[in-house]
Structures are given as structure tokens and as C-alpha cells.
Amino acid sequence: MSLWTSADAVAATGGRTICDWQAFGVSIDTRTLQPGDLFVALTVARDAHDFVATALKKGAAAALVSRVPDGVDPGAPLLIVDDVQTALEGLGRFARSRLTGRVLAITGSVGKTTTKEMARAAFAAQMRVHAAEASYNNHWGVPLTLARMPPETELGIIEIGMNHPGEIAPLSELARPHAAIVTTVAPAHLEAFESIEGIAVEKASIFRGLEAGGIGIYNADIPTASILADAAGPGEIGFGTGEGCDLRVCDVMLRDEQTIFRAIRNGTEILVSLSAPGKHLAMNAASVLAAAEAVGADPDLTARNLSAWQPPQGRGTRETIVLDEIEGRQITLIDDAFNANPASMEAALDRLAAAQPGPGGRRVAILGDMLELGPEADAHHAALAQLPAMERIACVHSSGPLMRILHDALPPDRQGVWAETAEELAADIRHLVHSGDIVLGKGSKSAKTSVVVDAIRKMAHRTRRAAQQDT
């Protein structure tokens, strides 16, 4: 069964096409395009009209364009519109209108993607689920996710992000969710907002897109909870650890690679076990539990299925780096280098503090700058030194001008190496971590802490090549 017919695509976009076609998927990248996809020529990083000829040669069913690109036959299967971005939104709106299932939307300063993936794991065993890929949560990612959603979907899970005021509400109004989650409100993108309260107002605007009778779900533990509660409306569910929470999180236990907690809702108690440690993960899972009934899922099955969730690459994945297979020397790596702000940094350090290093090993943090924090950036970096988790961390290596502030705030016995750039740390990685260590890599994406993480991975590769050359 096709996802898009030419007739439906024309009706959705107001465009024109000279031939009939059927598309079985929607693509914005010729590198991952599959035969039968509708190729959407967005102008994001580059003008994708330059790649339409390639897309058609690779078997695209049609291309959504605003002009006939160079090198493309005017008789090719083109859906020509005035503006490709607007047309993509039209596809998303049409796909949402034909959906008979339900939609769950998720936003928050921290934990959007983690909560989305938890929801996917929790609900996919109970119904046909369609969820956003990666972090497709912006002005083109949300309509693309909707445009890819099969009509028979029973639950669509949409992640919604923002960098500036006024971005969330239009995307929520496009998605029209039956339930919407705000995971938390924390200092992030403060350069674009005057205060944390301003961020809360923006996050709360996700509730403006709720369908009639929809449920607003929010973190009731945070200082700005009242802003979220006021916007959530009469069907609100506040989750948190406080006694007054609608869904209460109790007795959170962190183990080396596990989080166990009790959730109480309407007098009913549910036990939840997650396959990674972190108090913040318990809160993310609680928000998914709070959404279960609103999306037509069974809460007990939801709790059971949450155990199947695994952290995605770069967001807390844990792996073993074997340095020497014969001698059994290895490093445990926690890759959380995708992004960072004060709340997510605290959560990652808590996880490192709860983890157990190997024989003779240490807990080591490798940290990059937290960006887009505005005038309070220096204070936020200095405050990391006072976190309780730091007491259990043996050494902190860091890079970037803002992390120099943390480096200077740490006691001498905890100060590792500081460098101007992540590349400098990566070049010296063999002297910074050792067998038995459990190592956290964390920083904003532009801080390139992932370069150091990759250098740790390559320690194993070099060791194997050296061993092969000796034989």
C-alpha cells in the first residue's frame, strides 16, 4: 500500500504534477533514499534541488520541488509547488488529518529524545507506532515525521524542540496531539530567552495544540511547574516526587546499570525497571506512564515494556573498550556527547557517580563546554564543581574556554587536563584514561567532545592492529 498517491500529494500541497505516481516513503537525503520515495528538495544546509536528478536516478517515485532543476527533464515526475517548506507542512497536515489513531507530542529542555524512545519501546508492543527519527524536532523535522506516518498508525510520537520563542506552538498545532509531555524546564538556549520562566512559557505552548479533551503532562517538581500547570488545562497530569503529584515517583534506586522505582497513580502502584542508571531517567519514564491511558495503552504493560528501552548512540550509551583481550584490560565508556546543558550535565555526572569502575580503575569525566547559556554561562560551569556527584569522581578532564572555569573551581586532586579544544584532549587520550576506568564523555555538540569519545574507541582498534602485526 502506498504512502502517497500523486492525487493526495497535490491535494495536500496545492502543487501540480504532469503524471500519476505513488510513493512508499518520504526522503530528504539522497544518501538514504529508497526506491519509491518521494524526494523533498528542502533548502536547509544546501539547496536540495541540486540533488533531484540523483534522487530520480536512484529510483525516487517523484520529487517535491519549487522549480524544474537543472539537468532534469520537465516531463519527469515532479510535484511543483510555490515553496517546498510550506508544501512539506501541507503533507504533514494532510497526513495528520487522515490519521484515525492518536498522537503523543514531547518537548522539554532535557530528555525529549530519550522520552520519545522510551515511549516507542513502551507502546510499540501494544499498537502500531510511528515515531520521529533521530532528533527530527524542528520546523522541517516535525512535518517530515507526520508526512512519513502511515494512515494505519495507531500512535504517532512526535518530538518538538525549539531554539527561539514562538517555535513550539505552530508545530504542536500541526501535530494536534491527544497527549503532550513537557519533560522538564532547565537553562538551555538562554541566549534567546530572558529567563527560565520565558523558557517555561515556550515549553508550555505545546499544550496549545492539544485536541479537545487532550491531556497535558508536565514535571511537577520544577520551580516553573505552575506555568506548565496553568497552560496544561483541566486534564493535566503532574508527575514528580512530591506528595501532591498526580503520578508520584517513589523509592528511586540506582544500580550500576539499572534504575528501579515505584510509580503511584490514583492509588495504584507500578514497579518500573530501566536498563540504565539515572534519577532523570525515572522521571522520563514516569512521563511515559502518565501518558499511557491518554494514548490508549495499558499502564502495566507500559511499565513492563519500558525495560526494553536502551539509550540511543551518543546519549548515554555504555560500551566496553577492550585494550588487551589476553590480559583482560578494558575501559568502560559512557558516550553522552550529543548535547549538554546544566540539567543534563548533572544527570550524566550522577550516572557516572553511581557506576562502578573496574579493578584499579577510576571514575573519569571528560567534559566540553555547555553552549547557548547566555550571560550566566560562567556561573553554570563553575556550579558543576559543587555537585554532590563530583565527590565520587576521581578526575575531570575538560576542553573549551567555559570548561576552564570548572577546571579552576575544582580541588587540585580532581583537576585533570584542561585543553583549548577537544582535539587536543583526543591527541593525548592514551595518557588520560587507563584500564579499569569508567569514562563519561559529555558536552554540547559544537564542543566536539565526541572527538574524544571516538579517540577512546580507537584505542581498542590500535591495540588489535598492533597485536596482529606481532603475530
UniProtKB/TrEMBL annotation:
Pathway: Cell wall biogenesis; peptidoglycan biosynthesis. Residues 329-444 form the Mur ligase C-terminal domain. Its EC number is 6.3.2.10. Residues 106-292 form the Mur ligase central domain. GO terms for biological process: cell division; cell wall organization; peptidoglycan biosynthetic process; regulation of cell shape. The keyword Translocase does not apply. Its main location: cytoplasm. InterPro entries: Mur-like_cat_sf, Mur_ligase_C, Mur_ligase_C_dom_sf, Mur_ligase_cen, MurCDEF_CellWall_CoF430Synth, MurE/MurF_N, UDP-N-AcMur_synth. Signal peptide: none annotated. It comes from the Bacteria. Keywords: ATP-binding, Cell cycle, Cell division, Cell shape, Cell wall biogenesis/degradation, Cytoplasm, Ligase, Nucleotide-binding, Peptidoglycan synthesis. GO terms for cellular component: cytoplasm. NCBIfam families: murF (TIGR01143). Belongs to the MurCDEF family. MurF subfamily. This is UDP-N-acetylmuramoyl-tripeptide--D-alanyl-D-alanine ligase. It comes from Palleronia abyssalis.
